[in-house]
Amino acid sequence: MQKELHFFNQIVEKLLIDEEKNPVVKPISTDHVIDHLDLNFKDQGMDDDAWQRLIEQLMDFTPKTASKLFFNQLFGGRQPKAVVGDLLAVMLNNSMYTYKVAGPQAGIEKAIMHKVIQLINYPETADGTIAPGGSMCNFMGLVMARDAAIDSTRNEGVTTKMIVYTSAESHYSIPKNAAFAGIGRKQVRYIKANPLGQMDTQELELTIEKDLNAGHFPFFVNATAGTTVLGAFDTIGAISEICKKYNLWLHVDGAYCGGVIFSQKYRSLVQGIELSDSFSFNAHKMLGTPLSCSIIIAKDKAHLSKSFSNDADYLYQTNTDEFDLGKTSIQCGRRNDALKFWTLWKSVGNNGLEKIIDHQFYLADVARNYITNHPDYTLYSHPNSISICFNYKAVPADKLCTLLYEDASAMVGYGKFQEDEFVRLITINANNTEKDILHFFQVLERGAKKIENNQTIASLA
Question: What is the torsion angle, in degrees rounded to the nearest 10, for the CA atoms of residue 147, residue 119, residue 100 and residue 85?
Answer without folding.
Answer: 120
